[in-house]
Amino acid sequence: MRKNEYAIVDIETTGGNASGSRITEICIIIHDGIKVIDRWETLVNPRKEIPLPIFALTGINNEMVACAPIFDDIAEKVLELLEGRIFVAHNVNFDHSFVRHELEHAGLKWTTRKLCTVRAARKVRPGLPSYSLGNLCRALDIPLTRAHRAGGDADATAILLSRLLLWDEAGEIAKMIKRNSHDQNLPPNLPQSEFEQLPEKPGVYYFNNQVGKVVYVGKAKNIKKRVAQHFSGHKITPQRQNFMRDIHSISHEVCGTEFMALLLECCEIKKLWPEHNRALKKFEPKFGLYHYEARSGYKYLGVGKLAKGQTCVEHFFSLHEGVNLLLSLAGEFGIDHRFCHYGTPDTWDFVIKKGTANLPDIKQHNAKVEQALEHIVGGKSSFGIVDKGRSGEERSCIWVENGHFYGMGYISSDVGITQALELKEYVTPYHSNRYIMQLITGFAEKYPGKVLRAEVPVEE
C-alpha cells in the first residue's frame, strides 16, 4: 500500500445503476496528499445506446464513443492506477459500484479503502447549505470547468480534496479511511454521528429523507448492527442506489423485545406506508366477510373486496380464502347457498324475493346466520402477553381483545396484575390486522407461560 496516496475518480455513465448501465467516460487523478502526481482520462464505448437525457446532461453521444475502447480494453490500466490507493470520489459509493462491477466483468478482483468527499466536506466544513459538487465549488471558490464530464469533475474533486486535507486539523479524514471505519459505507447524506449514536438494543429504526419524511421502517434485535448491514455489501441494483440516495437521517425507538419491535414495525409501515418498504405490504388483506339484512328480513353473508366505510366480520388475503370459509360456514350451519354472495359488495343487488319457491323459514334461516357469525366472532378470545421491558424496572405488555390486536406498551415492574384485563390500561392502542394477529397467535402458542387469559369475553 502506498502511504496516503489517493486515486480520485469520476465517471460518466449511461444510467443510474451499475447493474443495468455502463461507463462512458472515466478520469483517474493520482494525489499524494499534497499535490496531483498523475492524471489519466478516456472515453469508453459502453456497447449500448446513450439515452437522450444523459446526452443532454453530459454532452456525450453515441458518435463520440463509437471508436473509444471498451472497458475490458482499459481494465488493466484502471486497476494499475487504483491498486493500493484510496479510492476517492464525490458520492464515492456510486463511482465505486460502477468501477468494481466493470472490473469484475473483466475478470479482475479489486478491493480498496474508500473516501467520500461529500462526507469529508460535511465533517471538515460543516454548515454549508449544499454539498453537491457544483455548490461546493461555488461556496469554496473552486474552479469547475466542463461540469458533468469525468475530467472536469475529477479536477474539481482533486482541488477539493487538497483543501479538505489542509483544513482537517482534527484528523477527521484519517479516521474515515481506517479499515474498520463504517463511515464510507454510509449513505453520502447521512451524518456519521447519527449512526454512532444508535443503541445496540431491540427496537425500530426509521430512515428519513431530506425533508424528514420516513422512507423506510425496520426492526432489529440490535438496532445499530442491523442498520450497518443495510449499508454493507456490494449491491448495484437501482433500488439500492435510490435507497442510499434518499437517506438523510435516522431516528429510532427502543423496544423491550424483538417481538415488540416486530409488532411496532408492522404498525408503523401500515401507518406511514414508507416508499422503500415492500416486503410487508404484500400482507395487506384485500377481501372481507360481510353480513347484511335485506328488506325482506332475510340475512345474507357475502365475501368481497374491502371497501372504505364498510365494516366486515373477517379479513382475508385472497378471495379464494374467503370463499372457502363462507362455503364451510354454509355447510356447517346449514345456510341456504342462495343467501351467500361472492364478489364485490356493490354487486350484491340480487335479493331473493319473499314468496320465491322453497325459501327457508325466515326465523330459522336468520338464526343459522347468527350462529355462523357467533362462531367466528364469539370464538375469538381476549388475552395479554407480558414479557421483558426496556429495562429491569419495567415489563412489556400486549393486549388482544376479542381476537383483535388492541395495543401494546410498558408497565412498571412493581405494578401487580391480578386480572388479565388490567393490562388494557397500560397499552397504547394500535390498529389491528390479520397479519399482526397471526404473529401474536404464533407467539402465544410458542410461549404459553407469557400469556394471561381473560376469564370471560370482553364487552366491546
TrEMBL record:
Report which superkingdom the organism of origin falls in.
Bacteria
One Gene Ontology term of the molecular function aspect? exonuclease activity
What are the protein's UniProt keywords?
Exonuclease, Hydrolase, Nuclease
SUPFAM superfamilies per record: GIY-YIG endonuclease, Ribonuclease H-like
Q: Which residues form a coiled coil?
A: none
GIY-YIG domain ranges (all copies): 200-278
Report if keyword Hydrolase is assigned: yes
Family annotation (InterPro entries): DnaQ, GIY-YIG_endonuc, GIY-YIG_endonuc_sf, GIY-YIG_UvrC_Cho, Ribonucl_H, RNaseH-like_sf, RNaseH_sf
Asked if Hydrolase is a keyword of the record, the answer is: yes
Identify the Gene3D superfamilies for this entry: GIY-YIG endonuclease, Ribonuclease H-like superfamily/Ribonuclease H
Protein name, UniProt field? Exonuclease domain-containing protein
Task: Report the source organism.
Answer: Flavobacterium suzhouense
